[in-house]
Design a protein that fits this description.
- The chain has a three-stranded antiparallel beta sheet with strand order 1-3-2. Strands 4-5-6 form a three-stranded mixed beta sheet. A three-stranded antiparallel beta sheet has the order 7-9-8.
- Helix 6 packs across helix 7.
- The longest helix is centred in the C-terminal third of the chain and has 23 residues.
- 41% of the residues lie in helices and 22% in strands.
- By secondary structure, the chain is α+β, with helices and mostly antiparallel strands.
- The protein is globular.
- The chain folds into three domains: 71 residues; 86 residues, K homology (KH) domain (GMP Synthetase, Chain A, domain 3); 72 residues, R3H-like domain (Ribosomal Protein S8, Chain: A, domain 1), CATH 3.30.1370.50.
């Protein structure tokens, strides 16, 4: 897939949307340069079909990330080694948690999923999942010990991620309706990349609003606004 393309549309927004479909990446993963703006039209071109051209380039970070993501595939031996590493740690870790806490590990060529279930485990989740994501990073490092490829661990505790996803989808729907009603953009609070992706995906097919991520981590946030043609 090309990293730079020229996309066209009747408006700037339509051209960008057409380009994103070709590149198959979210808007915050590309640099956009308007080559022909619909507002700069001469008297002699007024009867000609309106065409806006934009140059869209996938950001280097995104390009490298996608390549790395495709290349990393755990073979059976690596999966087993990573799982052994995790279970060796988790058996001891569980002893320090409330009685009745349990865990299970599922392996695949892409990642290892760890589910921890029990009561009164909120402190392992933390505010907006901060502790959970920190623990997830630690588990990834532990799983990768002695394994050639870096192992990606997906951790969930007491079904937190599923509940959080539903909350974020409801938030996206509610805020988008407010934006449409007031015709004013709304900036959401800073979120994890995983959470921003849920918002972007939820509103991707919305014909009236668009989303964009702004700022630097860990304060990167989403702005929801009306599309240019509304």
């Amino acid at each position: 897939m090309e990293n730079t393309i020229i996309a066209e549309g009747k408006t700037t927004n339509e051209a960008i949307e057409n380009g994103l479909k070709q590149l198959k990446v979210p808007k915050d993963c590309v640099d956009i340069k308007v080559l022909e703006n619909e507002d700069k039209r001469s008297f002699f071109s007024i009867l000609a079909p309106r065409v806006v051209k934009v140059e869209m380039t996938i950001k280097e970070k995104t390009s490298n990330y996608n390549k790395a993501k495709k290349e990393i595939e755990l073979n059976q031996e690596e999966q087993e080694k990573a799982k052994q590493n995790l279970e060796q740690f988790l058996k001891q870790f569980i002893l320090k948690l409330p009685e009745g806490t349990s865990y299970n590990v599922e392996k695949s060529t892409e990642n290892l999923k760890v589910n921890i279930k029990g009561k009164e485990l909120g402190y392992l989740i933390g505010y907006r999942g901060e502790t959970l994501y920190a623990l997830q990073s630690i588990l990834s490092s532990i799983a990768s010990k002695g394994v050639e490829n870096k192992v990606r661990v997906i951790l969930d505790i007491e079904g937190y991620k599923e509940k959080r996803e539903k909350t974020l989808e409801d938030l996206a729907d509610k805020v988008s309706k407010t934006v449409i009603r007031t015709k004013k953009p709304i900036k959401l609070e800073p979120m994890q990349a995983y959470e921003r992706k849920i918002i972007h995906s939820r509103l991707q097919q919305n014909k009236k609003v668009e989303t964009i991520s702004v700022g630097e981590e860990p304060y990167r946030r989403i702005i929801i606004s009306l599309k240019n043609n509304y």
